[in-house]
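Per reviewer request, we include the raw input and output of the structure prediction for the construct analysed in the revised manuscript.
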Amino acid sequence: MTITEGQTLLKCDQLNTPQPRVWFDLGCGSGLFSEALIGLLPKGSMIYAIDKQPTTFNSKEIEFIKLDFVRDTLPKVSSDGILMANSLHYVKDKLQFLIKIKKHLLPNGVFLLVEYDTETSNPWVPYPISFLSAKDLFRQAGFRAGDKINTKPSSFNNGIIYSAIFYNDVNINT
């Protein structure tokens, strides 16, 4: 996948803000989606890219932090958004994880999700989550609405990759 393809998956109206934003990219891997996201955010924004495996970025607006995003405690930063691109499928107890991670989102913050639209696991996607299941899961975790942003054919198993946005609803108790 290219940065341009990543931007196509992530691009949504909620990223068009005049003020700089702070984001987490949990499970950033090689950093492709961190780079895609920073290109869509206003100048001066900051992304904390989290992964167990080190990676380097050429942008001063992306700071890599070596952590296991499931087990370790994230930095005490309130964020405008959380991105998980092909990483939520590594989390076994997704509900408890989302409830925990939601505390890092500002009121009315957003959660961008990129995943394979399947429920069938394999060695590379141990705990998959389809868009329909994600909508229900995020609702249970106290998020409002789930909108599909875009889809892209996957190079694996003739499947589909989807992107979706979920809203941190301050009116829902978690």
